Amino acid sequence: MADLHTPDALLVKNYVEGSEAALATLIKRHESKIYGFIYSKIADRDISNDIFQDTFIKVIKTLKSNSYNEEGKFLPWVMRISHNLIVDHFRKTKKMPMYRETEEFSIFSIMSDDALTIEGKMIVDQVELDLKKLIEELPEDQKEVLVMRMYQDMSFKEISEITGVSINTALGRMRYALMNLRKIIEKHQIILTN
Amino acid sequence: MAKIYSKKALASKNLKPNKEVVSFILNYSQALTVVKIEDKSFEIIAN
Are A16 and A78 part of one and the same domain? Predict the structure, then answer.
């Protein structure tokens, strides 16, 4: 395994010369930055995984065909590839059928603006803020599981690996966290709605 | 249907791709050979 302190440029050079371990080190070093960047735009774990994979397939093809010539700027280069793939993804999914307006058919009969009003937005923000304050009241172990599950979108398997407890314990903590939140809400007669 | 009040914290620092994805990439890299002949490049995947 290549040294974790080896500069990116050297790892890229080693990889081009045939060291597969160098690629493993590069991925390990930058995976959370790249994946986090993709996820911040896509907000879906599976699609983010796909784009992450496609990004590195491009990286590998470029490096193996000796077309890479940006020494020392490995991460920005990979980020740019993933950025382009994200744009492609949105282009593909945003493709919509075309409707032409006629006398019998108005485009507004199928179009609606479901964005929240300013008031609606303020209420949502307020509710989210209130909920965060309530979560702060929970015991530490329950709070940890709830935040990982609901705010960081982790699976119970991942949570159990990170916190070092069994999946059942994590599930139990989540259950108690929700029960306790309900109790606090009922006790103080808080109305969370929008 | 219950309402969901939580907003996902995007760009969380703990996010990582699936292990399977990383292992696929490493295997793909091992299997791939790119041969350049004149101005054409050929990709060969070893099984």
Answer: yes
Neighboring chain A residues of B25 at a CB cutoff of 8 Å: 23, 27, 53, 56-57, 60
Residue B25 lies in domain: 17-47
The enclosing domain of A56 has a CATH number of 1.10.1740.10
A169 and A121, same domain (yes or no): yes
| Residue span of the structural domain in which A126 resides | 115-187
Number of domains in chain B: 1
Contacting residues of B for A39, CB less than 8 Å apart: 10-12, 15
Q: What are the contacts of A12-17 at 24+ separation with CB within 8 A? A: A12/A63, A12/A68, A12/A71, A12/A74, A15/A63, A16/A63, A16/A64, A16/A66, A16/A68
A88 and A119 both lie in a single domain: no
Q: Would residue B47 count as lying in a domain?
A: yes
| Residue of chain B whose alpha carbon sits nearest to that of A19 | B30
Task: Compute the mean pLDDT over every residue in chain A, rounded to the nearest whole number.
Answer: 86
Find, in chain A, the residue whose alpha carbon is nearest to that of B18: A49
User: How confident is the model over A133-175, as pLDDT tens digits?
Assistant: 889 989 999 999 998 898 888 889 888 988 889 999 999 999 9
The ipTM, to two decimals, is: 0.75
Of A42, A58, A93, the residue that ends a domain is A93
Query: Which residues touch A82 (CB under 8 Å, ≥6 apart)?
Result: A34, A37, A38, A51, A52, A55
Contact residues on chain B for A150, CB-CB shorter than 8 A = 6
Kindly report, residue by residue over B1-41, the tens digit of the pLDDT.
566 666 655 445 578 999 999 999 999 999 999 888 888 88
